[in-house]
Write a structure and sequence with these properties.
Chain lengths: 321, 265
């Protein structure tokens, strides 16, 4: 097996059958492998999604490799780290890249720590320069970008909305099965998270409210507008912190990273940490009392005025459309 | 029992954001660091919440010594704040961040924790608000062979075990882990408390334990950065906002019309 391949690693099947962000991260991997004239491998920990072989073909994957073990279904982080470390010893990847899910935020730095490798999170894009990699990542909640340089054999994590995948038409790739020694998970889940309704991450239309709504009661206007448009309600962090809505609604750097087609921000100032979760939206609409609010710098359409006066009219107009 | 909280000093993220919005955020001649000297430095918000998590364990009756530790250029003021909040010991590792990366910071923290006899629980912030990396806690955990539980909104001691409520996109998840462990704290834990005036006065006299890489027998090779920051820049926001004018009912109709015309709706 070719060493120094670019290896995309995923685990846990996502909702649509394929691992979350698989296409985006394969897209990034394909670009890098192409630039370096290296193989692109896709390492799947745990069950293989039905669409994986076809997707691998579309992104020019040379080897689709699967580590199958009951301990990896669902995959705890100890099992993931062990599995990747075992893979690394055998296959010595040129670099290992992951899509930045919550689990990836644990597994990527742990793998790097275990193996003494470099790790970079929040990646947006990557370039190969001589024998090193330069990763552009976001910092200060999105107020700045940094370029980190690392050597070969690093663990790199990229943010979901960084890439626009473009599938090719390669033939499906047959999976190869790899062995793995089981480990005991040290962290035991005693109560699983159970929410399985529609998620902000997948929403086409999002209406988000912020502190400018004035009070928790007014959040129902956000829910009504979202419902009238067939979208989902989101929120900025302060109103989550204040208990107006629960944290599954939080959009931003430390909340959900969304990429709706339409994002309506109401009474939200447009702090970088909020924009980190919505700036990939196709069209942003901002409603804010303050004409100088940062949110207008990102918006396609702006309405300057009192959200509490405009929201009822928008609910009406959206309902009548 | 011994609890250690790792805290980092950062530039006030709200102030950084205000400069950015005003288009006045500047990168220095080195092309790497923010120059605004007017931006105040403070304890990373999540780290203050990590101290809060420890204090809540104490409120719930747990008996432990609390040590707060920081690696950075001048962490003393911030560490005195930690002492005022109830840390029995404050430890400063004075280093130049420009010469380190996340691995070397984690190596320093782990070496100090080991040298001081280990810990039953290490609390960190979920991420530092300057680099947003969120990797140091996992690197410390790996270096000490401990498990790590991230993004906690609540931490409880149940017998010999820790019960941690984690924030996930699918809602809260409750996990249990045996000590020693590393746990990272998220903002969902809620506002940290303020120190009392008398605690602040008393904390002024608390002297930090100062530890150097040499004290920890860490030579340059062990602290060699693997991740080099080569450049920092302020991204451009394009900005082509069209303001819709009129009475609320008019702008509402106009907006829906525009979105339909653009095929967004
Ligand atoms: C490390 C870190 C991580 C963070 N992560 C996130 C995150 O994931 N998500 C997030 O959202 N934030 C996050 N934040 C917080 C972020 O920096 C901002 O503080 C937050 O986004 C501000 O929320 P807001 O816009 O609702 O409130 P404010 O900044 O208070 O803005 C309220 C806005 O409402 C407007 N307004 C007031 N009244 C009205 C009215 N009647 N009608 C119309 N407009 C009105 C005001 O003009 C103002 O622009 C993070 C911060 C840090 C430091
Ligand atoms: N220099 C440091 N000194 C002490 N703790 C740190 C330092 N850097 C990071 N940490 C801890 O690790 C967490 C995550 O930091 P980071 O990985 O830099 O985003 C912080 O919230 C702190 O708890």
């Amino acid at each position: 097996m070719a060493e120094n391949a670019i290896v995309v690693c995923t685990w846990s099947a996502g909702r649509e059958g394929l691992p979350e962000g698989a296409e985006e991260i394969l897209h990034i991997g394909r670009g890098l492998a192409g630039a370096l004239d290296k193989d692109l491998n896709w390492l799947v920990l745990g069950p293989l999604s039905p669409g994986a072989s076809a997707l691998a073909g579309q992104y020019g994957v040379a080897h689709l490799q699967q580590i199958q073990d009951p301990k990896l279904d669902p995959a705890g982080s100890d099992a993931c780290v062990e599995a990747i470390a075992a893979y690394w010893a055998e296959h010595n990847p040129g670099t290992l890249i992951v899509h930045q899910t919550g689990e990836a935020r644990v597994v990527a730095p742990r793998v790097a720590g275990r193996l003494g490798k470099a790790v970079v999170m929040n990646g947006i894009s990557i370039e190969a320069v001589d024998s090193n990699y330069q990763i552009t990542a976001s910092a200060y909640g999105g107020d700045t970008r940094v370029i980190y340089e690392v050597g070969a054999g690093s663990v790199l994590s990229f943010i979901a909305n960084a890439a626009v995948p473009e599938p090719g038409d390669g033939a499906p790739v047959t999976a190869e099965s790899l062995a793995f020694d089981r480990v005991e998970e040290r962290v035991q889940v005693v109560e699983r998270a159970t929410f399985d309704g529609p998620r902000l991450d997948d929403a086409e239309i999002i209406v988000s409210g912020g502190r400018g709504l004035g009070s928790a009661d007014n959040y129902k206007l956000i829910e009504e507008l979202a419902a009238a448009l067939g979208g989902l309600p989101g929120a900025s962090r302060p109103i989550v912190d204040d208990g107006w809505v629960d944290s599954s609604h939080q959009v931003g750097l430390t909340g959900r990273i969304t990429r709706a087609n339409l994002y309506i921000a109401v009474g939200i100032s447009g702090a970088s940490q909020h924009m980190a979760g919505c700036s990939a939206a196709g069209t942003i609409v901002a409603i804010n009392r303050d004409a100088d609010a940062a949110i207008f710098q990102y918006a396609r359409y702006g309405i300057q005025g009192d959200a509490l006066k405009i929201l009822p009219e928008l609910i009406r107009a959206a309902g009548a459309r | 029992m011994k609890i250690i909280v790792c805290v980092k000093e950062v530039m006030d993220p709200d102030a950084v954001n205000n400069y950015a919005v005003a288009g006045r955020l500047e990168i220095g001649a080195d092309g790497k660091t923010l120059t605004q000297t007017a931006i105040p430095k403070l304890m990373n918000g999540y780290d203050e919440q990590a101290i809060e998590a420890a204090l809540r364990l104490r409120d719930a009756g747990a008996d432990f010594t609390l040590t707060v530790i920081s690696a950075g250029p001048e962490p003393d003021k911030m560490l005195k704040h930690a002492a005022a909040l109830g840390a029995q010991e404050i430890v400063s590792i004075p280093v130049d961040p420009a010469e380190l990366d996340y691995h070397s910071v984690a190596t320093l923290l782990a070496a100090q924790i080991k040298a001081s006899g280990g810990a039953d629980l290490i609390l960190c912030g979920r991420q530092a608000s300057d680099d947003d990396q969120g990797v140091v806690p996992a690197l410390v955990a790996e270096s000490l062979g401990m498990p790590v539980v991230t993004v906690a909104r609540a931490v409880e001691l149940v017998g010999e075990k820790l019960r941690v409520t984690r924030v996930t996109p699918e809602g809260d998840e409750v996990v249990e882990v045996a000590c020693p462990a590393v746990v990272t704290i998220s903002n969902e834990i809620g506002d940290p408390r303020y120190p009392t005036a008398s605690a602040k006065v008393k904390a002024r006299r608390v002297k930090p334990t100062v530890v150097t890489p040499g004290d920890l027998n860490l030579d340059e090779a062990r602290l060699q950065p693997r991740v080099m920051l080569t450049k920092q820049f302020v991204p451009e926001v394009q900005g082509n906002c069209e303001f819709l004018q009129g009475e609320p009912a008019e702008v509402a109709d106009l907006l829906i019309e525009r979105l339909k015309a653009d095929s967004v709706l």
